[in-house]
Write a structure and sequence with these properties.
Radius of gyration: 21 Å
Strand content: 25-35%
Structural class: alpha+beta
Distance between the termini: 50 Å
Bound molecules: zinc ion
CATH superfamily of the largest domain: Hsp33 domain
Strand order of the largest sheet: 7-6-3-4-5-11
Helix content: 25-40%
CATH class of the largest domain: Alpha Beta
Length: 298
């Protein structure tokens, strides 16, 4: 099925569930980054986490950045998502492929020890940030640990990316369930048993489950009200104007060195790989802009 993310609430309870199919988004990320299977799974899981958290945002313009910095061969995974379902991300090292562990792509081995940083920009002057040590590097458990430790919200997170023997991503998705209130013991038991029995996300996506069906299985058939449906999309916000602004922000000293080299400068977007070419004359113009900024005339 086409990529979809839904946000739901369990009728009569303070339980929120979001679930997503993100196969096309992860395929696009793999295509743009040329990532190997294990690396694609790592990036795909964090991208899916971003899509899920984006769908929980109250406003389309709210933004989330998730960054894993780690000691494993992948080095870093960075994802940005917003409340409109748009997401983008990149890996420190996309050429990482490890032998499978217990029949699954060894994302934990590719990530290793590290830290998950979460930044939320909800339009206030200061973005809120939180960071937790990675639990396993498998991403879903690490996000659950972030919610429990930094936001004090007990959460269940499951993420999955399936890579076929020809190394192509063929299924991706995930769900996130959050408990905003203390629940009666029998309801907790029902949910725990349902979560323990739910098939893996990749199996459900490959079977053709919708996001709603995934949540229904995860929550053992509790009645759900869908409050939001979005289409997740890979979207990079880079542009020549933004790259120019970044160059100006480097400052006059840095730009003077680039401009005096009389060479073209190629600036590559880490997210989508687009390369922006700046001629010596254009660099000179940016240098004058930076000098004007520093002299306070702009
Ligand atoms: Zn880009």
């Amino acid at each position: 099925m086409t990529d979809t993310v839904i946000s739901t609430v369990v009728e009569g309870e303070d339980i929120y569930g979001v679930a997503a199919i993100t196969t096309q988004v992860v395929q696009e990320a793999q295509r743009l980054r040329g990532a190997c299977p294990t690396a694609s799974a790592a990036l795909g899981r964090l991208l899916t986490g971003g899509v899920l958290m984006g769908c929980l945002c109250k406003d389309l313009t709210h933004r989330i950045a998730l960054q894993v910095t780690c000691k494993g061969p992948i080095q870093k995974i960075h994802v940005e998502a917003n409340g409109a379902g748009q997401v983008r991300g990149y890996l420190g090292q996309p050429v990482v492929n490890l032998p499978s562990r217990r029949g699954k792509l060894d994302v934990g081995g590719a990530v290793g020890k590290g830290v998950l940083h979460v930044m939320r920009d909800v339009g206030h002057r200061e973005a809120s940030t939180g960071a937790v040590p990675l639990v396993s590097g498998e991403i879903a458990e690490d996000l659950a640990a972030y919610f429990a430790q930094s936001e004090q919200i007990p959460s269940a997170v499951s993420l999955g990316v399936f890579v076929s023997p020809d190394q192509q991503v063929t299924a991706a998705g995930g769900f996130l369930i959050q408990f905003h209130a203390t629940l009666p013991d029998d309801l907790i038991l029902h949910i725990e048993q349902s979560l323990a029995a739910v098939p893996s996300v990749t199996n459900m996506v490959r079977e053709g489950c919708t996001p709603q069906e995934m949540l229904q299985r995860a929550l053992g058939g509790l009645p759900l009200n869908v409050v939001r449906t979005l289409t997740p999309q890979w979207a990079c916000r880079c542009s020549r104007t933004r790259v120019s602004q970044t160059l100006v922000a480097l400052g006059a000293d840095e730009l003077r060195q680039l401009a005096t080299g009389q060479r073209h400068e190629h600036v590559r977007c880490e997210f989508c790989g687009t390369t922006y070419d700046f001629t010596p004359a254009e660099l000179d113009a940016l240098l004058h802009e930076a000098m004007a900024v520093e002299q306070g005339s702009v």
